[in-house]
């Protein structure tokens, strides 16, 4: 029996690899985004802990040097948190571009898959027609022989 061969299978394989590569890149970017979000949450906890520490040190005798150090530390952590937020915004843009690229590659791959499916359906229909034609020829040959002598169905197909 004949086997279906799609001439663009190598190109389809390339498209699938490109799409898989895009998916890996997007997953890496998403992982980096989650890490940045974790950093921001940690910085927010540090800021709130620093503020709580400042509140507790405002009770009783005040140590101006300690307050100044705590304020400087809180400002430093705040600066780091703001930097992480800016990095997160840049990461969101990179993720959006990567998603758009992934959609494009997926569309290109799907177009080839749809073409392959259409060609396979055409090939199957053509094979079916060939088979019907072959069986018709066998039946015609058997009928022609049957006019000269009596044959059984089994004899026709054991040609």
What can you tell me about this protein's structure?
With 159 residues, the protein is mostly helical. Helices cover 87% and strands 0% of the residues. It has three helices and no strands. The model has no long low-confidence stretch (mean pLDDT 88).
SSE blueprint and pairings:
Layout lengths: L8 H49 L6 H85 L4 H5 L2
Helix pairs in contact: 1-2
What structural keywords apply?
159 residues; mainly alpha
Short overview:
The chain has 159 residues and is mainly alpha-helical. It contains three helices and no strands.
Global shape: rod-shaped
Relative helix content: over 70%
Topology, number of strands = 0
Per DSSP, what share of the residues sits in E-state strands of 2 or more residues?
under 5%
